[in-house]
Amino acid sequence: MQDTKVNNYEVIRNRCKPLADRIADELAQGYSLHRIVTEAELYRIGGASYGSSVERLRTWLENPISLRGESRYVGELSVAEELERRLEAWFAQLDDERAAAQSSVPAFIETAVSRKIWSSFEQARELCELMEISAPPGTGKTQAIQPYLARCRKREGFKCPVWVVTLSEFSLSLKAVLQLIADEVHPDRESGGRKDDDFAIKRMIEERTEGRGGLLIVDEAQHIGDADKLHGIRVLNGLRYFTDRKLFGIAFLSNGEIYRRVAGGKHGQLSSRMEAARVEIKGVPDEDVDLIMAAHGIGGKPAREWCIKKAKGVGGLRALTRAFVYAKREFGEVNHQTLAMLGRL
Predict the structure, then answer these.
(1) Under 8 Å CB-to-CB from 174, ≥6 apart: which residues?
(2) Tally of CB atoms within 10 A around 190
(3) Per-residue pLDDT tens over the stretch 240-271
């Protein structure tokens, strides 16, 4: 009897994995769970006893065996079965719409830079290090995050201990950063928890991350890289606590400000750790330009020379792909002639 139950669980997991993997891919392309719930009409499933529509979807993603209780009526699908049916229909519709749009450019193009960033993520996670990954603006740092997260979710499931926070000028205090981390490691926590002090938030993060071998990715980390400001160093030292305790590794994605300013001051505890674990990407390699050009269907030696020069300038690949968009919009096609004409407008 027990073997039959286990086998049934395996059948369900194997049937649901392609759907969960597809959701991971859509999240990597910019969708949110809220948008998926809306477009797939998942809000029509179940009642209030099952929580919100997003909570139901997250529960199913973390454990596809859940939400399979007895139905109220004979022949009625369970909440999980109805959710899966609607997801399959929505994915089929999405595929048809994308095929009709005839867009041949992938949402994400794997480059040498993205592979270097992914390798650095793995190192920070495996060794539980405090690592800065620095690269000039426009080289694809931010774009590498969600595909990496999708890979982890496919490999380990949606409960994989990889969390992403994005900093801004509005999150320069230690408490603000702790709140962002807390929201990631415990997305279902009550909003009243926001009134907790730093120590209470820290304890909750410890409880949620201990023993999981996780990774925290901090995007736009240059916002805390100003070592001349006391609160910037306080944030870095606060985050160092988690790596020192071996709770999770931390990867800062920045333009290089963190290490430069830490190394330039009297902050040996930080600089000694970051000196041993930092990755510096100088700029966009030619092979990445070749990959971007191929994905957009652009070729020829003159076009390549133009694109390499553009990618090596201010804005990197971001400026290059934006030039493709402008050329397409203005002239209807992208080639060396239309790209060269952009500078004359």
Answers:
(1) 198, 231, 234, 235, 238
(2) 7
(3) 999 999 999 999 999 887 877 777 666 666 76
**Residue 40, Ramachandran bin (φ over 0: left; ψ between -120 and 50: alpha; else beta):** alpha
How confident is the model at residue 189, as a pLDDT?
75
First and final C-alpha spacing in the chain: 75
122 touches 174 (CB < 8 A): no
Are 252 and 258 spatial neighbours (Cβ–Cβ below 8 Å)? yes
- Percentage of the residues of the chain whose pLDDT score is greater than 70: 87
Euclidean distance between CA atoms 178 and 199, whole angstroms: 10
Distance between CA atoms of residues 295 and 326, nearest Å = 17
Q: Computed over its alpha carbons, how large is the radius of gyration of the chain?
A: 23
Catalogue all structural domains in the chain, each as residue range(s) with its CATH number. 2-101 (no CATH), 112-280 (3.40.50.300), 286-342 (no CATH)
Helix or strand or coil: residue 42? Answer: helix
Q: What would the two tokens of residue 113 be? A: 């830079």
- pTM of this structure: 0.87
For 63, list phi and psi in degrees, rounded to 5: -155, 95
